Amino acid sequence: MPQITIQIYLIFTLFLIVCGVFGVIVQKSLFGMILSSNMIFLGAALNFSIFDKFVFLSSGEGSVFTFVTIILGLSSIIVTTAFILVFYRDYKSLDSDLLNNAE
Amino acid sequence: MNIETITIILFFTGIFGSLITVLTNNHVSMSFGYLTLISSLSGLFMILGNFHAALTLIILQSVSIVTMLIYGISSCDFNILIKDKRKRFVTFIALISSASVFMMLTMIFLKTGFNTISVPNYQSFGELLLSRYAVLFEIVSAVVFTSVAGTVFMVKRRN
């Protein structure tokens, strides 16, 4: 079994971030867009942990920023939940194209 | 099963979850794909030694996504998902994979007992967080509090 190096972890996080960006561009639903943007957050959080483990040899600094990034992603989910709820009440749909007509 | 095999399994599960999240169009499949992704990511955090991040991810994000899903189901037309057989199959597969990864992680954790994060010169992660990064911690707490309060205010006002 090959050794799991930092490069393999970084390829995985790159895949996550690219998937997130792709989702934000392609998805039409607000729900899908927020999940995709959270994938970008998670990729960044995983990068902090990886560099803390492999480069800074578990000094704990990267773990703090991982924690902060996850909590910020969580806050964005909370706010977007309310936004989706209000949006759906007004438009009876979650299609983001309707936002172009919003006043 | 050694640690490299587990890591590779978690990589593939994460890739599977992220693809389900991005490529499907119904909200239930997206949610379960995302739950699969965060289950695998929390396993990776455990392997990297960041146990607090794994706990935060698996508890808080799962709860928030499930809450969001309940909002979605209660406000949207859920019957569309049940009638369409192809969407029902994707939802079922995503549910099974998410549950199995979560159970696998729990068993791995119970059997091997990965070490929690060890921080040099500090007794625990909490001590590091509250001594060197107290201001950052306060700012993040304020952001979370503001978002929750703003959410409650926004929804209540529209009612």
Structure description:
The complex is a heterodimer of chains A (103) and B (159). Chain A is an all-alpha fold. In chain A, 75% of the residues lie in helices and 0% in strands. Chain A contains 3 helices and no strands. Chain A is elongated. By secondary structure, chain B is mainly alpha-helical. In chain B, α1 (3-23) runs antiparallel to α5 (85-112) and α2 packs antiparallel against α3 (51-75). Residues 109-116 of chain B have low confidence and may be disordered. The chains are: A mainly alpha (103), B mainly alpha (159). At the A-B interface, α1, α2 and α3 of A face α1, α2, α3, α6 and α7 of B.
Note the beta-strand portion of chain B: under 5%
Q: Main sheet of chain B, how many strands, which sense, barrel?
A: none
Percent of residues in helices of chain B comes to: over 70%
Quaternary state reads heterodimer
Task: Write down how many β-strands of chain B occur, each being a DSSP E stretch of 2 or more residues.
Answer: 0
Average pLDDT rating of chain A: 80
Which overall shape of chain B is indicated by the principal axes computed on the Cα atoms? flat
Shape of chain A: elongated
What structural class do you assign from the helix and strand content of chain B? mainly alpha
Largest interface: A-B, 58 and 62 residues
What is the gyration radius of chain A calculated from CA atoms? 17 Å
Provide mean pLDDT of chain B, rounded.
67
SSE ordering of chain A: HHH
Rg of chain B (CA only)? 19 Å
